[in-house]
UniProtKB/TrEMBL annotation:
The keyword Hydrolase applies. This is Pyrimidine-specific ribonucleoside hydrolase. PANTHER family: INOSINE-URIDINE PREFERRING NUCLEOSIDE HYDROLASE, URIDINE NUCLEOSIDASE. Residues 1-303 form the Inosine/uridine-preferring nucleoside hydrolase domain. GO terms for cellular component: cytosol. Keywords: Glycosidase, Hydrolase. It comes from Amycolatopsis endophytica. It is an enzyme of class 3 (hydrolase).
Length: 315
């Protein structure tokens, strides 16, 4: 597995989930702009791997901005100014230097060297993955599937139409989700919100040991935001839900749909348009917009998913 990430509190849980799962061969981590600027996301990723005792995992920095249009805003109001509720510096310092050459170079080298197909889990804006597939189409055959946290079927969180990761770089998202012939699983916020965890879950994590305590300590700013968003005390582990599916295929129930990404500059920019009509009712007239068909996660055993994540993080 390779994780592409913009840590972010939920990214912290997702990275740790993969790093602590024994059946995962975590080949590398690449970083992207998103919740906070690239310099912060990269340092956060390296510190989180150090927390998990995984300085063996190489990290490379990727895109600092979207493909086309400059980012309108970050998500520091959700994750804190440093991306981790102001507590990034409390994590261990990285024990491994940043990889030279950048994210796309590392992705290519890891994929080319892999002896079996690799799962990529992009849990931030899709800029690095779009660049990889555009510049190096020869690596597609080495990708087992791309499991993406992003999108919203019924609306968004950055705008009324768009979820943050897709909204941050819609052109990149469209390249990956619609135009590329690579198996994709989209894990939208409609499902990740349903997988939210409460304070009792967080207390169990904090009591599990040093890693669990350190992860729980990253949540105050994030918890404050989600107290308002959920209407109760808890947090949404968006990215960890996607990584759980990457680790254990089938832990989420998926259905295959045509999908489009809105790339106009209007109020729907960044929306994921998932056509959930019955196949016979879908418009097939000549001249319709091109649509990619991808798997979309629509359901899971909620308690089972929460237990899976907690058990791995608490080991």
């Amino acid at each position: 597995m390779i994780i592409d990430t913009d840590p972010g509190v939920d990214d912290a849980f997702a990275i740790s989930l993969a790093a602590l799962s024994e059946e995962v061969d975590l080949l590398g981590v690449t970083t992207v702009f998103g919740n906070v600027p690239l310099e912060a996301t990269t340092l956060n990723a390296r510190r989180l791997l150090a927390l998990c005792g995984r300085d063996d995992v190489p990290v490379a920095a990727g895109a600092a901005r979207p493909l086309v249009h400059a980012p309108l805003r970050r998500a520091s109001h959700v994750h804190g100014a440093d991306g981790l509720s102001g507590r990034s510096a409390a994590l261990p310092e990285p024990g491994r230097a940043l990889e030279p050459g950048g994210a796309v170079s590392l992705l290519v080298s890891l994929l080319e060297a892999a002896g079996e197909p690799v799962t990529i889990a992009p849990i931030g804006p899709l800029t690095n993955i779009a660049l990889l597939l555009a510049a190096h189409p020869e690596v597609r055959e080495k990708i087992a599937r791309i499991v993406i946290m992003g999108g919203g079927l019924a609306g968004g969180n950055s705008t009324g139409a768009a979820e943050f990761n897709i909204w941050s770089d819609p052109e990149a998202a469209r390249r990956v989700l619609v135009e590329e012939p690579v198996p994709c699983v989209l894990v939208p916020m409609d499902l990740t919100y349903r997988c939210a965890v409460d304070t009792a879950w967080l207390a169990k994590l904090a009591a599990s040991g040093p890693i669990g305590a350190a992860l729980e300590a990253l949540t105050p700013d994030y918890s404050s935001h989600y107290r308002k968003a959920l209407g109760w005390d808890g947090i949404v582990l968006h990215d960890a839900v996607a990584v759980a599916e990457a680790i254990r295929p089938g832990i989420l129930k998926t259905e295959t749909y045509p999908v489009e990404v809105e790339c106009s500059l209007g109020p729907a920019r960044g929306a994921t348009l998932v056509d959930r009509r019955r196949q016979g009712l879908r418009a097939e007239a000549e001249g319709d917009i091109a649509q990619g068909h991808i798997e979309v996660a629509v359901d899971t055993d909620l308690d089972g998913l929460r237990s899976f994540v907690l058990d791995r993080l608490a080991r």
